[in-house]
Design brief:
alpha/beta, Rossmann fold, two-stranded parallel sheet, 9 helices, 9 strands, 15% strand, binds NADP nicotinamide-adenine-dinucleotide phosphate
């Protein structure tokens, strides 16, 4: 019997991934901060006939992550797949964001991933097997206008993932990056918007709300499917949805894309 541990599993892509892995026969460890929603997601997994353990966790706190991994290993003995997915969105320029904003986003989007990997790695190394999926973003493959802190956190995840893959492949451990485009989840609930003033912040929120209406936006189930395929087909990297065209264009023509994106940032 295989087990997956998923952070940010109470809603959105994380919950969709929990349900998909449960349908495929996995038991699931679910982590997020708000216990009620997390328990509801765990109940949905149990409804599919698999075991679920919900552990309220703040991934930005190393001790909280250590507790999560301890509980998971006590319950299931071993974890086969780690999905690092818990993340938050911050929109704003360097001038409009504070050091505290940067620390908050790096603590969740980057350090949260480092803490889970460090806590689980001894078990993966001992068994000589396991898979780590880091959910990044197209903003970790190309710059996005007015999202400096968010992109910095996701570029850090890309660097972590690509380098860790080199380190762990010889030891039998698979490391995958799954980079979503915009997802029609409820991420706006906890997204932070910074602008020159209240009106500017509101305009940034409205801009993202209208982006979510686009037909090209992914659904949480699309991300779950990409994570499943990354693990089962042993893919190193998947960019999900229509944004794959943009990330590929940035890879091939970074200068031209920088110019186009700088026009959008004005
Ligand atoms: N939404 C997008 O358009 C988009 C685009 C590209 C990449 N992504 C990435 O895809 C991933 C999933 O996004 P999503 O839209 O599905 O997110 P979402 O619907 O906002 O869900 C985020 C999940 O992460 C949890 N979480 C947030 N901060 C946490 C913390 N400090 N500790 C533990 N759990 C925490 C939330 O639960 P609690 O609040 O209860 O903790 C929730 O379960 C993220 O890494 C995100 O950066 C999203």
């Amino acid at each position: 019997m295989a087990t997956v541990l998923i952070t940010g599993a109470s809603q959105g892509s994380g919950k969709a991934t929990a349900l998909l892995f449960a349908q495929k026969g996995y038991d699931v460890v679910l982590a997020a901060r708000q216990p009620d929603r997390l328990e509801q997601a765990a109940e949905a997994v149990r409804g599919l006939g698999r075991q679920a353990l919900a552990v309220p966790t703040d991934v930005a706190e190393a001790k909280s992550v250590d507790h999560l991994v301890e509980q998971a290993l006590v319950k299931f003995g071993a974890i086969d797949v780690l999905v690092n997915n818990a993340g938050i969105c911050l929109t704003g320029t360097m001038a409009d964001t504070t050091a505290a904003d940067w620390q908050q986003i790096m603590n969740t989007n980057f350090w949260g991933y480092v803490y889970t990997i460090q806590a689980l790695l001894p078990q993966f190394l001992q068994r000589g097997q396991g898979a780590i999926v880091n959910v990044g973003s197209f903003g970790g493959k190309m710059p996005l206008p007015n999202m400096t802190a968010y992109c910095a956190s996701k570029y850090a995840v890309t660097g972590l993932t690509d380098t860790l893959r080199l380190e762990l492949a010889p030891k039998g451990i698979q490391v995958c990056a799954v980079h979503p485009g915009v997802i029609n989840s409820d991420f706006l609930e906890r997204a932070m918007f910074r602008g020159q003033d209240e009106q500017d912040s509101t305009a940034r929120r409205q801009q993202l709300e209208s982006t979510l209406q686009g037909a090209w936006v992914s659904q949480p189930q699309d991300i779950a499917q990409a994570i499943w395929e990354a693990v089962t087909k042993r893919r190193s990297e998947v960019v999900v949805g229509a944004v794959a065209v943009a990330t590929e264009a940035y890879r091939l023509l970074p200068g031209a894309m920088q110019w186009m994106l700088s026009q959008a940032a004005k």
